[in-house]
Amino acid sequence: MEQLRILIGEPKNFSEAAIRALQRVGEVVLKDATSQLDLPVALNEFDAVFLRLKTRITRDLLPLQPRCRFLAVPTTGLDHIDLGACAERGIEIISLRGEREFLNTVRATAEHTIALTLSLMRNLPQAVESVRRGEWDRDRFRGRELYGKTAGIVGMGRLGSMTARYFHAFGMQVIGYDIRNEVAPSPAVRVNRLEELLEHSDLVSVHVNYTDETHHLINNAAFARMRPGAVLINTSRGAVVDEVALLEVLQSGRLAGAALDVLEGEPCIDNDHPVLRYAQTNANVLITPHIGGNTFESLEKTELFVAKRLLSKLGF
């Protein structure tokens, strides 16, 4: 019987505990396989491949009859994977989607939402850079508080509900909207229409999965409903926000600011991206490179969890 082969295709800082667990059942290779040339080869040479978010797995990258039976991705969002093409080729996706009990212990993205919010409201990046230049001018960086304001949470699932609790702890009024009937417990007051949430929120934080239904959910019509001077936080997926409309309301001053951990078109983002270009010369936009879930604790837990799921699928 041929030895089971497992590839860790994005090996940097991969969980040592997960590697040890996988090594008990077969050969484990740590090698970057995120390029368009390397991925098809990997899928033909390994029984299981671990990847994160660095690569879009499209139909044209998938061999017609791959050796790979399992693609393991320690994420909840799967919009970077052609799920239909994988199914046609017999590749099963092992992910965190639907693992609610486990995911309740993973809070990194909710914490990052708060970090982005405070950074935006208190002008922290600009203040830090000013001090690094040897300046000491506190009056330039007068910020705004969260206390007493209204936070609107779009998407009241696991992360939205976690974030709602964090905002509530700052003394904010929290309202939430979700298209589903079943949502996670939180201190947010539920509203029945997105428009109602937008009209009453000083801060709108987006926590929805990316689907055809949520594509450009926050668009021209949504921005028109938002309070003048409100801010937008997005740690879900870039394409949930219509970025052309976002730039228009930022340039007009109707929206006071935006803090984004995601951009449409990931992972192929460069200096020509319109929002990135705008942020380089305008202080009312903060962007981080999709690091919401990128903590040592989060990756250690999620990679070990997915590794154990893979072992279970393999009969170990």
Give the topology, please.
Blueprint: E1 5-8, H1 16-23, E2 27-30, H2 38-45, E3 48-50, E4 70-72, H3 83-88, E5 92-94, H4 100-103, H5 108-121, H6 124-132, E6 150-154, H7 158-169, E7 173-177, E8 189-190, H8 194-200, E9 203-206, H9 220-225, E10 230-234, H10 243-252, E11 255-260, H11 274-281, E12 285-287, H12 296-313
Parallel strand pairs: 1-2, 1-3, 3-4, 4-5, 6-7, 6-9, 7-8, 9-10, 10-11, 11-12
Helix pairs in contact: 1-12, 5-7
Describe this structure in words.
This protein is an alpha/beta fold and 316 residues long. The chain has 2 domains: 5-102 and 296-313, Rossmann fold, CATH 3.40.50; 108-287, 3-Layer(aba) Sandwich (Rossmann fold), CATH 3.40.50.720. Helix content is 35%, strand content 15%. The chain is built from 12 helices and 12 strands. It has helices at residues 16-23, 38-45, 83-88, 100-103, 108-121, 124-132, 158-169, 194-200, 220-225, 243-252, 274-281, 296-313, and strands at residues 5-8, 27-30, 48-50, 70-72, 92-94, 150-154, 173-177, 189-190, 203-206, 230-234, 255-260, 285-287. The strands form 2 sheets. Strands 8-7-6-9-10-11-12 form a 7-stranded parallel sheet, with helices on both faces. It has a 5-stranded parallel sheet with strand order 2-1-3-4-5, with helices on both faces. Strand 6 (150-154), helix 7 (158-169) and strand 7 form a beta-alpha-beta unit. The longest helix has 18 residues, at 296-313. It is globular, with a radius of gyration of 21 Å.
